[in-house]
Amino acid sequence: MMESNGHDGPDGSSLKPVSSLRSHFENMNKPKDDSAATTNSTPARNQSPSPSPKPPPIPDTRPSRSINVSPETGMYKPKEALNPSVHHSVQIANPPPLSPRPIKPPAVLIEPPQSPPKGRLFPTLQSDANAHLNPDPSKSPNTPIASSPRLFKIPSRPHTPMPDPGRSPRLAASAQPPSPPPPRRSTELRRDREARTSPPIPPPVNRSEKPANRLSRLIGNAPKLELSTQVAERRSPFNSPPNSASSPENEDPPVLPTRPARPPPQKSVTRTNTFPAGFDPPPVHHSIASIRRDQEANGIVRSPITTQSVEERPALPARPQTVTDPASIRIPASSAMKPPPRPPRSVVTTASITIDSPVSSQPKRIVSTPTTQFAPPPSRTHGRSLTVDRGAEKISADFHDPIRRPGPIDTDLRVSDSPVTTSTGHTVITTQYPDATKVNRRPPFIKQGVHEIHTKYDTRIFDVCGQYVCTTGHLTRVWSLLDGEQLMSFAHGEGIKATAVKFKPTADVQDEGTRLWIGNNVGEIIEADVASQSITGTKTNAHGRYEIVKIYRHYNEMWTLDEGGTLHVWGPDGDGVPSLELNPSQTYRLPKGHTFSMVVGEVLWHATGKEIRIFTPTASGRSQLQVLMRPLVSEGAGDVTSGTVLKSQPGKVFFGHNDGKVSIYSRTDFVCLGVLSVSSYKINSLAGVGGHIWAAFNTGKVCVYDVKESPWVIKKDWQAHNNPVVKIVADPASFYKLERSQVVSLGADNVLKSWDGLLQDDFLENEMKSLDTQYCKFEDIRLLAMTWNAGASTPNSLRYSESDAVFVQNMLQSSDSPDILIFGFQELVDLEDKTATAKRFFKPKKKDASDQERMSHQYRDWRDFLVRSLDDYMPAEHLYHLLQTATLVGLFTCIFVKATLRDRIRNLSNAEIKRGMGGLHGNKGAIIVRFMVDDTSLCFINCHLAAGQSGANQRHNDIAAIMESSVLPVERDPSVRIDSYIGGGDGTMVLDHELCLLNGDLNYRIDTMSRDTVVIAVKQNNLAKLLERDQLLVARRRNPAFKLRAFDEMPIEFPPTYKYDVGTDNYDTSEKKRSPAWCDRLLHRGFGRIQQLEYRRHEVRVSDHRPVSGQFKFTVKSISPKKRTLAWADCQQRFENLREKEANEEMLSYLTTFIGYDSEMSRKLIQGRAARKDYRSSNQQRE
User: Fold this and answer.
1) Where are the beta strands (DSSP E) in 161-258?
2) What is the distance between the terminal CA atoms of the chain, rounded to a whole angstrom?
3) Does 376 have pLDDT greater than 80?
4) Of 470, 566, 795, 830, whose CB count within 10 A is highest?
5) What's the confidence (pLDDT) of residue 680?
6) pTM as predicted
7) CA-to-CA distance for 965 and 983, rounded, in angstroms?
8) 784, 772, 1150, 782: which is closest to 980 by C-alpha?
9) Pick from 986, 1008, 1002, 1078: which is nearest to 1043 by CA?
10) What DSSP state is assigned to residue 1048?
C-alpha cells in the first residue's frame, strides 16, 4: 500500500484549481474516449487551488471486476445477481484513468457521489459479506444499523451527509445543466436512496484520515472474513439428545442420562412463518457472488431458503422517527414496582433455515433473539419471532427493533430495557448485619488429603470434581487433592490464555472428572483427558475470535458463552455426551457486559452489572429464550459478582454484590425476597453447602453464614488467603467420589486450599458446650472493675479534697468483698510532656530489670496506695493477694484476688499492644492480662484509644488491632482448647477467651451535636437523646466489622464523664471547649455467663475525667474428666449420624440435579455403591 501524496485530497484524489474544475464541468458534454465510461475508479472531488501539477496515477493492486452499466441511467446493473452459481472473473490489473468519461445525463437528478476509500477490496468484502440473510451472532457488528422499510437489504458502509444538490450554490451559479455523475456501484446508489428515506443519519466517516490508515484498519478486521474449507452439508443423526429408548435403567453400568424433561409450557400457541411467502431475495453483489463461487468450488453447497406458506403476510412495523438512547427510557428503580411479568409467547411459527456458515458445515438449527446491541435486549415492536440462524454475517434491517414509541400498548412479545425494583410487599431490605457474637475463627482444614496446593503460576480460574482440581490460565494443570501430585500440565502458546474451564459429562458416572473443556481468549474450545494427559479434541473458531468467558455444565450438555454474548448449547451425541466433533445444537444471543451467571435447574441467571436477566436456552430451540420482559435489579445493592443456591432452601437463589450485600430471589416467580447487608467488603464468590453460605471476600477472608436465623448468624470467619479470594467452589461430587464434603478456594496468591464443608471441629465443639452441664460444675464469683483516666494525678492529689479522699474507700466498702478486683488507669504520666515522652520513646528498657526497677514511681505509688486501701477498708476475714501489675506509657493495670481463689488460678500471662505513632509508641494502646480460674479462661483489657472528635475510624482500627493481635501464649492441648476457649481459638487472641472484660478511655464521642446542645441536654437529664448519637453505640448498630459488636454494656444512666475543668463540675470552658462524651466505659462478653450488677461513675475532681466502676458476676466451671469422656463419645456419634445423613442427601442431589438421573435410578446407584464399600471392608477385615 502506498501513502497518499501530500498534494492529494483526503480521499486520494488530486487537487486542482477552481478554474480548472469549472472548465471541467463546462466541457463534460463534449465527446471523449468511450473507454472511460465503464470504469469504476474514484470520481474527482472538490479541490482546493494548487499550483502544482497533477501527480502521476498511483498503481493500484485492487482486483478489477467487469461491471455492467446501463447506458440509459448510468447505474450499475448486476449480472445474474440472483444466480449465486455464476462465476465472476477477478483479476489484478492496473487501474483506469482517474477521470471518467461523462455519459448521457440520467432522467433523474442524482446527488454527487461519495468517494470510496482507497483499497476498496476489504471494505467491499466486509460490507457485502455481512449481507447474508441470517446473521452469525459471533460476527455481528458493534455499530447499530438503521432499520429500513424494505424487507431485506444488503447493508453498506455509512455515508457522509451531503447538501441537497438542488440547493448547491455552485450548481445554481452555473448556466449549464448539471452534469451526470460517473457510474457507481449499486451499493453507492442504494446508500443514496437510504440517505433520503432513513430518518436516522449515521455518524460521518472520518475522511480526513489517510487512506493508508483506513485500509490498514480494515485489513486488521480481515481475519473475521476468512473462509475455511467445508464439506457438503449433511444432517447429523446426533443433533437431538437421545430419546427415552436409551433409558439408563436398562444398562449396567448406567450411562449418562438424557436431559430431564422440561415442564410443559403454560400456554400452547401456534407460530407462523418468520418470513412471508413469496419472498424475493435481494440482488447479490458481485463480490458476494465471487465468495459463493469460491465456496462452491471448495465443495460447499448452498442450501436453498425454505419457506412456509401462510395465509397473510405479517405487516411490518412503522419505522421510528427518532432513535432514543435506551438508557434514557429506563424506568427508575422504585420499590413500588411489581415483579417483572413473563412475556407472552409469540404467535408466529418459525421455519428452519439452513444457510452455509464459515464456522460449521452441519445443517443449522433455529436460534433465538439475536441482536446487534446485546445489553440491554431490544424491545420487540412486532409479532414476528426474532429467530434467525447463525449462519449469516449481519442481521437484516427488519430485525433491528426500533425503540418503543409512546402510544397504545400492544400485546406482542417485548423485552424492555427498564430495570425493575421489586415491590415492597415482597422485598425485605435488611440493614441489620449478621450476628457475629458466636463467630468461630478456626480454619476448617480438611481431614483427609492435602489442604494446600501451590500452583506456582498466575491463575484465576479453576474447577473441581472429586479428587481432581484443574487450574488454568497461560498454563492448564490438573492436581490430585488426595496427595497434591500434579497429574497434567500443558501450555497454550504465546498470546493464548485459557479463560474458562469445566469438567464435562461422561457416559459413565464413575468416569466423571476425567474429561475437561477449556475455553480460551481466541474463541477456541479444547477437550483434555486427565487419565491419558492428552488433548483429545479441539474446536477452533467455536466462538469466532471472541473470548470465552464461561463454560457451564447442564446435565449431559455443555454451554459456552463468549464476551460478545454468544451462547452455544452443545447437546449430547450418540453416546449421550457433548462432542467437539459436532457443531453446537443451538446458538443464542445474550447481552454483553457479563459479570456473573449460573445455571439453576433449567434456567440461566445472567447478570450484567446490577441487572439480572433470566433465560431458558435449550438444545432443541423450541422454547422461548428470555423469561422476563425486563431485567431484575436489587434495590440498594451494587453490581452482581457471585451467586449460589442452597439445598436446604430449594426455592431461593442468592446473589452477592460488590458492596457486601446479598440479594435473595424466588425461583418460581422471580420476586426479590430480600436484600441483606452482610459485610462492608466486596463479595468475590459465594458457595452453598448444606444450610450454610460460604462467602469469599476481597480481604482474603472467608465467612460461613447460617441463613436459617434472621438476621443471619456468622458461624465462621477466618483468614483463608493472604490476598483476595478469587473464587470458592463447593464440589457437588465430593461425597459420591471421596465420601467427604469439600470446598475449594483459590486466592490471588495462586494457592488452592481445601476446606471441610461439614465443619467437623465446629460441630464437635458446639455439641460439647451444649452438653457441658453433664460433665461440668459451675460456680459464681464476684468481680469489681474500675477505670479512670487520672490525668497524671498521684494518690497524694486525692488528699486536697474531702470528696476525693474518700473515693477509693467508698468504692471498696460498697463492693461487698468481691473475689477479683480490677483497677485500670490511663494517663498516669503526663502525655503532654514532650521531654518525658521523648525519653520514654528513645530510652531502651533493661531486659533483666525486675518489676520494681522497671516500674516508674507513678505506678509504684498507685500500686502501694491500692494495697494499703485494701488492707484498711476491706473486712479483716478477707485477705487479698496482688495477682498482676502491668504498665504501658500511662496505662496501668493492677489485679487483686482473694486468697481463697489464688490456688485455683493458672496460666497467668500478660501482653501489651502499642497503637501510638503507627504502633511504635505506647501512649495509645492496650494491656491484656489473662488467666484461668478452674477450667474457665478470663481476659481483661485496659486500653486507651485515639483521641479527637473525628477520630472514630482510628479508634475502630485500634480496637480491631487489639482484638485480632495474637500476642498471648498459645494453648497446645486440643482438649483444653475445646473446653476452656471458644470460637475455635487457641488462646492467643482476646476473643478466644470465654469471659472478657474491657475497660478504658475509649475516647468515643457524641456526633452531630454542638457542645452547647450537649451541655443543655445533660442539664435536662435527656441522656437518651445523647446516647442515640454516641459513636460506640452507633458503630455497634451499623458497622458489621466493628469488633465491639460482640460485647455488651449495661445501659448508661449517668452523665458524660468527659471533659471537665479540673477541680470543678463544669464541662470544658477552655479555648477548645470540647463537647462532653462518655469516654470511660466498661464492656463485657460472656455469652450469658457474665452478669453486670452495677454501672456508675464517681465524683473525683482531680482529673478532667470521672472514674467509672462496675460490679459483675462471673460464672466459672470445673470439668469432670470421666464424664467429659462419655460426652465426647456421644458427640462423635452424633457427628457420624450427621455425616451419614448429609452424605445420602448430597449424593442423591448430585445424581439427580447435577448428573440428571431420576430418583429411582439414583437410589439404586447409591445402594450399589454402599454394597461395594461393605464388600471391600469385609475383605480387608479377613485379610
Assistant:
1) none
2) 82
3) no
4) 566
5) 87
6) 0.66
7) 15
8) 772
9) 1002
10) B
